[in-house]
Amino acid sequence: MRSVEGADGSALGPGIPLLFSSLLVTLFAGATIIAFAHFFPAGQMAGRLIGAILLVLAALDVVELVRLPWSVRRSAARPLTITELENLRSRDRGRVYMGDGFAWSPDVVRRYYLFGQAQDVSPSSLARSRPVLLPHSAFSQHMITFGTTQSGKSTLNELLSVQAILDGDPVIVINPKEGGRWLNWAYAASLHAKRADRFHLVSLSYPNACSTYSPLQDYSDATELADRIVIPLPESRDAAPYKAFCHKVMYVVSEAMIACGIAPTFERLLKYSLENMGELLQKLLVQRFPHAFRPEQLRTPDQLKGAIQDYRDRVSRGLIEEDRTVNRLATLYSHPIDNFQRMVNSLVPYLVKLSTGAAGTVMNVEKGDVRWHDVVEGRGVVYFDLAGMKGALSSEAVARMIVSDLTSFVGTRYAYFSSRPRIHLFVDEFSNVLTREFLDVLNKAAGSGLRVYAMAQSMADPEAVLGSRAQAQRMLDNMRLKAQMQAADETGAAGFSEICGKTKVHEIELSMNTRPAFFSAGHRAVADYEQSQSRKQAVRSEFLVPPELLQRMERGQMFFKLGGELHFVQVRPLEEPGVDYLSDVRRVVRI
């Protein structure tokens, strides 16, 4: 028989359903000893006394089963109303409700290894569950949640984003998947918090009925614009030279457009970089040197080539000052056309998609309805619906552009603004938007108020995107709150188990040896027998969160690690939101 001792050496009792097994064993042993008490070596009375004690222990197990709060566990599966959510949080203002659960302490772990490991029990049966609430500061350095498909990540997203909306904070959701329920709950929470007038849906599926958004609207210099435009392009070693050249083209063209007072849009960037760069060069020369160049003298390619040479001659003779913007655009314009087209080939379909069709309607605008400054100051809610995007303009490409634009705004705000309200950014399929540049943002964003809630399939995803385990570890180090829902395989489970570390499990093995009686040994009756007992104690190291447990968790069950604390919770789903935002949109635009 094996037992597990706690830190103080005392034996730990079983969990809730596990009390059933304890009850059966104790009841059977007590009844058996009483029935065969006359064979007991210490006498019949002693046997009956020990049997009675075991029956009393069985009765205590029954009392414990009745006493433990099964209602708490049943409530974990019951949908949560928004009123109940507010009541839960009203008891402890300034905290975020994570679900019902308990601290996953070393004692609970030892209890699992004693009773749960062999019986494949649910972790919720190992201790009594209570509402788990965390302070807002727990999310100040971001949260990442890993879990396979249908593990409950969407349920967690809904729960956390609704609370952020109810708190009156700016909330931004980037969802690359079908998520009508999440959208409806974001809108329902905005209605409940009287913020519906500050709710924005940006969706290419409903271009005529959603808010417009331009990632090129706000910037500090041309480099930022170039970064956003080329960030979705491939980052492989073979593609690096092409991406670098595309970045150069976008930087030079954007710089010239800004110098000429032309607001950047995708259509204009396509025109001036790939279709008619000569027109932009003409505007720039006339704008910078109105006395030296006139529009009617710069209409043909030959005239422009002559103007470039004339400009360089005048600079060399000191007649005009050298202009670096003109230099860069003139050099780019003179680049061999065949090589130029080959180098920017990957950029062409991308810009075409963003300039036309539904994407053009929503994103090819000078001034969009969604501006980060207005969203933050007005405590708005923005939901980006990126589902169904394929080809050159994938949800991954647009999501990366949005995140690049937002982080640029956050960096500017950190540098120049003293007011830094909490900004909640929820990103599903986080690996799709993860770049090495974004790692620096994660490190600095906490000081600006930005809180990232990232969702990913497994820890292998960031490593695959970033190209190295060291970069993936750097990303994890910037996530203070790490959570794991059901893992798809042993590899994914082992990653989180290693993060949580190990504990020592004290194992005690008791053995009993019985031999029949022999008259030659001095026994007087056949009923006599000899009995010996031994006790062995061993200590082994085990994971605080066993990998096999992570693979068989139920939907909505989650472990999370915050600093040195480890918790298990059952995330309670919200009830149906009661509104259907997309149906209302379809009715308005008659889709």
Task: Briefly characterize the structure.
The protein has helices at residues 18-35, 44-67, 70-77, 82-90, 106-119, 153-166, 180-192, 222-230, 240-259, 266-275, 277-288, 301-316, 324-333, 337-343, 348-355, 357-363, 372-377, 395-416, 436-445, 460-466, 469-477, 490-500, 547-551, 581-589; strands spanning 2-5, 95-103, 130-135, 143-146, 171-175, 199-203, 381-385, 423-427, 450-456, 481-484, 502-516, 529-543, 557-562, 565-570. By secondary structure, the protein is α/β, with parallel strands linked by helices. It starts with a strand and ends with a helix.
Q: What's the mean pLDDT score? A: 83
- Our count of helices gives 24
Uncertain parts: 1-16, 69-76
Cα distance spanning the termini? 69 Å
Strand order, sheet with most strands: 3-2-14-13-10-4-9-8-5-7-6
- Main sheet attributes: strand count, strand direction, barrel closure: 11 strands, mixed
Strand content: 15-25%
Rg value: 34 Å
**Number of E-state strands:** 14
**Helical/strand content category:** alpha/beta
Give the helix level as a range of percent: 40-55%
- What global shape is seen? elongated
